[in-house]
Each structure stands twice: as C-alpha cells, then as structure tokens.
From TrEMBL:
Group of enzyme by EC: hydrolase
Protein name: Dihydroorotase
Keywords assigned: Hydrolase, Metal-binding, Pyrimidine biosynthesis, Zinc
Cofactor(s) the protein requires to work: Zn(2+)
Species annotation: Ornithinimicrobium pekingense
Function: Catalyzes the reversible cyclization of carbamoyl aspartate to dihydroorotate.
Family label: Belongs to the metallo-dependent hydrolases superfamily. DHOase family. Class I DHOase subfamily.
Annotated PROSITE patterns: DIHYDROOROTASE_2
Signal sequence range: none
Cofactor details (free text): Binds 2 Zn(2+) ions per subunit.
Sequence ranges assigned to domain Dihydroorotase catalytic in this UniProt record: 55-244
Pathway: Pyrimidine metabolism; UMP biosynthesis via de novo pathway; (S)-dihydroorotate from bicarbonate: step 3/3
Length: 448
C-alpha cells in the first residue's frame, strides 16, 4: 500500500460545519485533532491554513452503490478513473458493485478490487460481494470467506439482477446476520418486468410504444424482502427505490421495527419519465425514470428519513453500448460527480433538507449501514480527516466532456445545478480541488 501516513497539518478556517455554525477544524496526521473556535491554539508549527469562508464542511461522502467496471470492462471505467470521479464529486469511500467480469463472488476478486482502490489512492474502495455465484441466482457466493477476507466485505448484492428466489434470499439474510452484514437488493421481479422492459409502464410507455416495467415489479419484491428481514432478524437494504408504493412499504416496515434501510439515486429524485419522449438512451436506466408524483414522494421520504441514503448507482457505459435504438441500449447513467450538486439543488435549495441532513444521507447513514466504524463518525475530534468542502451557492453548468469518468453517458449534461464540491480530503490528504484530482503519488506540496 502506497498511501501516505503523514501529511502536513491543516487548519480549515471558518467553515460552516454541517450548516450549523462556523468553526475551525484542525487536521493532524490524517485525523481531526480539534474542532471549534479555539482549534488554532493546538496547531503545530508549519500548519497550512485553508480559508473556508462561505463554504460548508461535510464529512467525506460515502457512496453505497457504484459501478467501477473493473475487472472486465476497463473500456467503460477502471477503479482508478471511477475513484477520480468519486473524489471530484466529494466522496471519500465508494462501494463497488459486484457485477464485474469476473463477478466479485469470491475473496480473490474482492481483494483485487480493494488493492486496485488502494493503489489508486483517491477514495477508499470497498468491494460489494455478490449474493449468488456468478449472479446466477442459484447458489450462494463465498459470502463468509469474503467477509473474513482482507476486504472485510459487509455489503452483499447481485445488483443488476434481483435475488428473486425467496429461499436463496432467506438463506443470504441468515448468513450475513452472523457478521452483521447486509443484503442490498435490486428489487425487480423478473416475471413482472420482462427482459425487454425499458421504461416505466404507464400511459407514456403506451404512447411511445416501448415495453414498460410496472411499479409493482419493484414493490412486490420490497414487500417480500421486508417480511424476510423480519423473519430472519437480519438486515435488508433496498437499492435505488423508485416508486411511491415502495416508500409506503418501507415506511410500514420501519414503523414495525423491521431492520430495513433504503437508498434513492439523484436521478430518481430529479429526472422523470417525460424525458423519454425524445428516445434518448442517456435516460435509459434501471429502475426506469418514473412519473413526477413518484419523484415528489421520493423527495419527501428522503427528507423525513424513510429513505436513509442517497446513492449514485454510477453506471458507466461505452458509446457502443449506449448509442443504440432505445430498446437495445444499455441501462445506466453516470452519477458520481453530479450527486452532491443535484441533492443541493433539489433538496437543499428548495428548503426540504439542511446540510446536516445531507451529511446524514450521504455520509453517516451509508457508513453505518456498511458498518464502516470510525470512518462514519463525522466532523468530530479523533475521527479520520475525511472531509468535503462545499460551495453552497456556486452555480455550474454540467459539461460531460470534463468528467473524470471514462464514459460519457451523462444525463445531466447542460443542466444548471447550484452547489458545488470545492475540495475533498481523504485522511488529511487533498484528493480533489475544483475538479482537479490527486492520487497517492502526485499531490502538490503547496496545494492548499
Ligand atoms: N442502474 C443501471 O441501469 N445499470 C446498472 C445495474 C443496476 O444498477 O441495476 C449497471 O450495472 O449498468
Ligand atoms: Zn440495480
Ligand atoms: Zn447498480
């Protein structure tokens, strides 16, 4: 591992910590040494000063749902390029989904992804383990071995596919319970949403002549899984919730003490099915963009905590896989670099959430769900200095060509968003500033 263990001490001055008041934050040896108006009193000689007037300081963002495509599709994304996009987007940790080639269904692949992430050094890359061998939905993957490996896998998912066999799902939940793991489910009943389904089933799909995927294909699996979580006493996490009905089920389950958590993507919060009218495959995603009423319910559920987490589902695809007739194009869209600006625009500017709520949904809640331990502690003395500085008022027009990702399937291109990531710090080391990123080897000494 090449990560630096020592960095120069830094005093972040005058940042609005979680939007709850101006504080100074002292970082020494990769940890937060002090927070408060008197933090500078403890600053050792040679401390660099970083003026953060007008900026909001958040704990480093954690993405529970990222596709990095390595191994197997390094033409679409690598661990290094995806990590750079993550750092630029304010993230200090990402969970790399298992639908790679080979699939992350064993210790060897899990440790390889972990090591690639460490070598790149932009963010902590945590491999997600597959639930089933080869994502085939038949036999359990090496869940216990991955949990005990160096990668310490705690999140398991067949994402891209649904664990639709109730018996297999039950066994997976029982298995992960032993080490306090969680199963993240891609909720899509394959019998209700067929292989060719590519948009929300409703009035619009009929008009466009596209095969639809009904909301109930998601909701029946969410309902089944919360009952399996209740039965097993284990933890289930609902990936990319997209319908009002799923929110109702999750609210019901939480009200009964069932251990269920849920995530929503930035695109399901802000983009809606009417964008499909131009048949542009950049808007083709799984689950599909839904009607405005669903997006509104998702926003409310995130604000009131029924949905715990914002996760990107960053899903890079090369042009050849995306630029097809709508029905034939690959599912998925980029998300790492735009997640914070989208959440800022839809949830914060609108007054639905404060920055402390954003810190919960994009850092502490995902860290808790994945059992990241000390890394999810937040902006407090003693915690690792994983920090994200946000300029809450800066307006940007998204330019897909400036992305760190290898892919260009960016549905946000040309949109104006308010709120931008100014700087990202991983254990006291600046990994990104204003879109410029640094790995382990090439951080300019005088950067601050
Ligand atoms: N979200 C998507 O549309 N695509 C994801 C798979 C997934 O998250 O289900 C992908 O791997 O491309
Ligand atoms: Zn999925
Ligand atoms: Zn996904």
């Amino acid at each position: 591992m090449t990560a630096r263990t020592t960095t120069r001490p830094v005093l972040v001055r005058g940042a609005d910590v979680l939007g709850q008041g101006t504080q100074d934050v002292l970082v020494v040896d990769g940890r937060i040494a002090a927070v408060g108006s008197d933090a500078s009193a403890d600053a050792p000689a040679g401390t660099q000063r970083l003026s953060a007037d007008g900026l909001v300081l958040l704990p480093g963002l954690v993405d529970l749902h990222t596709h990095l495509r390595e191994p197997g599709r390094e033409d679409a994304e690598t661990v290094s390029t995806g990590s750079q996009a993550a750092a630029a987007g304010g993230f200090t940790a990402v969970f790399a989904m298992a639908n790679t080639d080979p699939v992350t269904d064993n210790t060897e692949v899990a440790e390889r992804v972990l090591d690639l992430g460490r070598r790149a050094g932009y963010v902590d890359v945590h491999p997600v383990g597959a639930v089933s061998k080869g994502l085939a939905g038949e036999e359990l993957a090496e869940i216990g071995l991955m949990a005990r490996s160096r990668a310490r896998v705690r999140v398991f998912s067949d994402d891209g596919r649904c664990v639709h066999d109730a018996r297999l799902m039950r066994r997976a939940l029982e298995y992960v319970k032993a080490f306090d793991g969680v199963v993240s489910q891609h909720s899509q009943d394959p019998r209700l949403a067929g292989a060719t389904s590519c948009c929300h089933e409703g009035e619009l799909s009929g008009r466009l002549g596209l095969p639809g995927w009904p909301a109930v294909a998601e909701e029946t699996i969410v309902a089944r899984d919360v009952m399996l979580a209740r039965h097993t006493g284990s933890r289930v996490h609902v990936a990319h919730v997209s319908t009002a009905g799923s929110v109702e089920v999750i609210r019901w389950a939480k009200g009964r003490g069932i251990d269920v958590t849920a995530e929503v993507t930035p695109h399901h919060l802000m983009l809606t099915e009417d964008l499909l009218a131009g048949y542009d495959p950049v808007y083709k995603v799984n689950p599909p963009l839904r009607p405005t009423e669903d997006a509104q319910v998702l926003q409310e559920a995130l604000a009131d905590g029924t949905i715990d987490v914002v996760a990107t589902d960053h899903a890079p695809h090369v042009r050849q896989d995306k630029e097809h007739a709508f029905v034939d194009a690959a599912f998925g869209m980029l998300g790492l670099e735009t997640a914070l600006p989208v959440v800022s625009t839809v949830m914060v500017r609108s007054g639905r959430m404060g920055w402390a709520d954003v810190a919960r949904a994009m850092s502490s809640a995902p860290a808790r769900i994945a059992r990241l331990g000390t890394q999810g502690q937040g902006v407090v003395a003693g915690a690792p200095a994983n920090l994200t500085l946000v300029d809450p008022d800066r307006q940007t027009t998204v330019d897909a060509t400036l992305s760190r990702s290898l892919s260009r399937n960016n549905p946000w291109h040309g949109r104006d968003l308010v709120g931008a990531v100014h700087l990202t710090m991983l254990r006291g080391r600046v990994t990104a500033r204003e879109g410029l990123v640094w790995g382990t080897e090439d951080v300019p000494e005088e950067e601050l």
